UniProtKB/TrEMBL annotation:
Species of provenance: Alexandrium catenella
Keywords: Hydrolase
GO terms under cellular component: cytoplasm; nucleus
Superkingdom of the organism of origin: Eukaryota
Name this polypeptide is given: Serine hydrolase domain-containing protein
Domain spans labelled Serine hydrolase: 72-186
GO molecular function, one term: hydrolase activity
Entry-linked InterPro entries: AB_hydrolase_fold, FSH-like_dom, LovG
């Protein structure tokens, strides 16, 4: 009997990817499995199907995982554009606080290599919300002329891909990655 590993994802229509963690073996219906395979081939997301005997314990942890300290899952978080690590840590806590696995996860935040000012956000309410966490925010790339434009280009994405590659080389491996908004878009490019 085949099961999907405890990590999965949702891909939105805009091409953003947000990793979701199910933390329990899932036996998909054959048609669901075919859909997942089709999506993964299209976006190049690599995963493996594992069998029950590949699990180490009753909590469903694969034998080759839990790279964090004390047997925790070592997770990498890539945030949305125009925030910083302080905001990202709060986002992780809010998103995963109700998950029974949250105490078993250890998050590292990958800061974008492009520094900006909180005024990068055009909306003054957004600026006001982020300002208590610092005036400096980071980006993985810029969107020119603006987000979701037909002729949009992403200056700076090559530097971010190189920085992420170097981060994985120095600090990897990770049990999983979580990408929100711009961070999810960067993960899709990887």
């Amino acid at each position: 009997e085949m099961v999907l590993p405890k990590w999965g994802y949702d891909a939105t229509a805009q091409g953003m990817m947000q990793m979701q963690f199910h933390f329990s073996p899932w036996d998909p219906l054959p048609e669901v499995q075919r859909n997942i395979d089709t999506i993964n081939r299209k976006i190049g997301f690599d995963y493996v199907w594992v069998s029950e005997e590949d699990y180490e314990d009753d909590e469903g942890r694969p034998r080759d995982r839990n790279f964090g300290r004390g047997g925790k899952l070592k997770m990498l978080y890539l945030y949305g554009g125009g925030v910083n690590a302080s905001v990202a840590k709060m986002q992780c806590a809010n998103v995963f606080k109700d998950s029974p696995m949250y105490p078993k996860m250890e998050f590292t935040v990958f800061d974008g290599p492009h520094e900006s000012h909180v005024s990068w956000h055009l909306n003054p309410i957004m600026q006001q919300m982020i300002r208590p966490f610092g005036e400096t925010v980071y980006l993985y790339y810029e969107r020119v002329p603006h987000a979701n434009s037909q002729r949009e280009c992403w200056p700076g994405i090559d530097a971010s891909l190189n920085a992420l590659r170097e981060h994985f080389r120095k600090k990897g491996p990770y049990d999983g990655v979580v990408g929100f908004d711009m961070g999810g878009e960067l993960l899709l490019q990887v």
